[in-house]
Amino acid sequence: MSSSKPTSVKTTEAVRDRLRILAQESGTTITELLEQLAQSRLTEAEQEQRAMEAAAELGLEYTDGLQQAGRSAWERIRAHQEGAAA
User: Fold this and answer.
1) pLDDT attached to residue 26
2) Closest Cα to residue 44, out of 27, 25, 67?
3) Residues 47/55, Cβ–Cβ less than 8 Å
């Protein structure tokens, strides 16, 4: 767990209650659960950096077309993840 200064996040009671249950079932705290969530997702800048690195490893030029194909792939991945969570 991080050693940074604690803060609060405003949410609904239903979300708080669900987070509490999920944390209990995982044997962790809400704070640690949120930390895990935050670390499990890439920011757009991180996605872009990884795409550039992957293109370089494959010997591809990182063109606008390749960039758009990568963004489209991330959109499909997110849609699939959201569909699996529903």
Assistant:
1) 96
2) 67
3) no
Asked if 67 contacts 54 with a C-beta cutoff of 8 angstroms, the reply is no
Residue 85 reports pLDDT greater than 80:
no
Q: How far is CA 38 from CA 14, 33, 54, in A?
A: 20, 9, 23
Percent of the chain at pLDDT > 70 equals 94
pTM for this structure?
A: 0.59
Contact 60, 66 (CB under 8 A): yes
Show the tokens assigned to 6: 């604690």
Whole domain around residue 33: which residue ranges? 7-41
What is the Cα–Cα distance from 15 to 35, expressed in whole angstroms? 16
Number of domains in the chain: 2
- 83 against 10, higher pLDDT: 10
64 and 75 in a single domain? The answer is: yes
52 in the same domain as 33: no
